[in-house]
Amino acid sequence: MDDRASGRQAGAGLLATDPGERLPAIVVCDHNHIDSGIHTDGDLYTLDVAGVDRLANWQHLDETAYRRRSHAWLEAIVAGLDAEWPGLAGAVVEQHIATARTMHEYLNTPEGAVYGWDYRVPDGIPRGGPLGSPATSVDGLWLASSYSGMGGFTGAMGGGTAAARAAMAALPS
Ligand SMILES: Cc1cc2nc3c(=O)[nH]c(=O)nc-3n(C[C@H](O)[C@H](O)[C@H](O)COP(=O)(O)OP(=O)(O)OC[C@H]3O[C@@H](n4cnc5c(N)ncnc54)[C@H](O)[C@@H]3O)c2cc1C
C-alpha cells in the first residue's frame, strides 16, 4: 500500500468513531462559480463538501447512534470549515450529511460506493480508448450509462455517446 492509499484509509477510518482532534481530508466545492442554476434563492448558496468514507463505519449502528454520530461529524466538519473561513458556520441555514450508509440505503450501491460500482482503475493514464462497452447481451440494446465505462456525470455522458454511436452503426445502411 503506498502512502496515498494509507492516507486515504486513515481518513475514512476516522469516521468510525466520534470526531476527535483530526478531520479527514475533505474537498470543498462551490458550485456558485459556474452558472449551475442551483443558486436561485436570494442570498442562499449551496456548498458541497466531500470526503472518503466506508460503510463499515456506520453499518452496525442503530438509528439513534447513527444519527448522533453522523450529526457530530457534520458539526465537526462545519467547525473545520469555519476555522478556515471564519464566519462560515454562522452563515449556515441548513446542513445535511450523507454517509456511505446513505448511499447504500438510498442507491443500494455495493459498500455504499458513491459511483455505484467497483471501478477498475486503469494501469496508467487513459490514452483515449474505451474504458468499457455500452453493449449488452441483448441484441440491439445498449447502455447509455456511467456503468458502461467511466464513473460520474462525465462517464454517463460518454456512455450515452458510445451507446448512440453503437446504435447508429447498427442501423441498416
Ligand atoms: C451524492 C452524490 C454525489 C455525486 N457527485 C458527483 C460529482 O460531483 N461529479 C460526478 O461526476 N459524479 C458525481 N456523482 C456520480 C453521478 O451522479 C453518477 O455517476 C451518474 O449520475 C450516473 O449516471 P447513470 O445515468 O449511469 O446512472 P443513474 O443516474 O443512477 O441513473 C440510473 C436510473 O435508472 C433507474 N433505475 C434503476 N433501476 C431501475 C429499474 N429496475 N427499472 C427502471 N429504472 C431503474 C434509477 O432510478 C435511475 O434514474 C455523485 C453521486 C452521488 C450519489
Would you write up a description of this structure?
A two-stranded antiparallel sheet has the order 1-2. With 173 residues, the protein is mostly helical. The protein has two domains: 3-112, no CATH class; 129-173, no CATH class. It has five helices and two strands; from the N terminus they run αββαααα. Bound molecules: flavin-adenine dinucleotide.
C-alpha-based Rg, rounded: 20 Å
Protein structure class: mainly alpha
> Order of SSEs, N→C?
HEEHHHH
Question: Which ligands does the model contain, each kind named once?
Answer: flavin-adenine dinucleotide
Q: Helical segment tally?
A: 5
Quote the distance from N terminus to C terminus.
52 Å
Number of domains: 2
Helix content: 25-40%
The global form is globular
Strand order of the largest sheet: 1-2
Oligomer: single chain
How much strand?
A: under 5%
**Largest sheet, strands/sense/barrel:** 2 strands, antiparallel
Descriptors for this entry?
5 helices; binds flavin-adenine dinucleotide; disordered N terminus; two-stranded antiparallel ribbon; 2 domains; 173 residues; mainly alpha
List the helices and strands and how they pair.
Blueprint: H1 3-14, E1 26-29, E2 48-51, H2 63-84, H3 88-91, H4 100-107, H5 152-170
Antiparallel strand pairs: 1-2
Bound molecules: flavin-adenine dinucleotide.
Task: Give a quick summary of the entry.
With 173 residues, the chain is mainly α.
